[in-house]
């Protein structure tokens, strides 16, 4: 893990240990909690137009920032439980995505990669 993730991982471990919450933090439970936090992030944008979602007021932005932090903290905790290096996993996934979505084929398109594998462009 890169240093910022490592520092947050250690802080999350200490936070959970001080509260005796490690007993609840199985990978399954952390993954489930992560989806709840992602839904709370979505809720911040519910009923907003595209334009409004790009121009949040301070209170809206503060709520979004908190939910992004919750999502990231659960990801860090889950990765730590499973021994996943988040930064390395992200770089590897970027490489996979570059192969799935060659820029010259997908530029300006929102189609899923399976459309390109089947020759649909």
UniProtKB/TrEMBL annotation:
In the record, biological process GO terms are: nucleoside triphosphate catabolic process
Q: Which domain of life is it from?
A: Bacteria
Recorded hits in SUPFAM superfamilies, A to Z, give: all-alpha NTP pyrophosphatases
Q: State what protein this is by name.
A: Nucleotide pyrophosphohydrolase
CDD domains hit by this protein: NTP-PPase_RS21-C6_like (cd11537)
Instruction: Kindly list the GO molecular function terms attached to this UniProt entry.
Output: nucleoside triphosphate diphosphatase activity
């Amino acid at each position: 893990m890169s240093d910022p993730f490592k520092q947050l991982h250690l802080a999350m471990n200490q936070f959970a240990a001080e509260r005796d919450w490690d007993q609840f933090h199985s990978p399954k439970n952390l993954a489930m909690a992560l989806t709840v936090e992602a839904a709370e992030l979505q809720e911040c944008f519910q009923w907003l137009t595209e334009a409004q979602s790009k121009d949040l007021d301070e209170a809206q932005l503060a709520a979004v920032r908190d939910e992004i932090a919750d999502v990231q903290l659960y990801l860090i905790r889950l990765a730590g439980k499973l021994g996943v290096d988040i930064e390395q996993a992200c770089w590897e996934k970027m490489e996979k995505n570059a192969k799935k979505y060659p820029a010259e084929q997908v530029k300006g398109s929102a189609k899923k990669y399976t459309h390109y594998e089947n020759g649909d462009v």
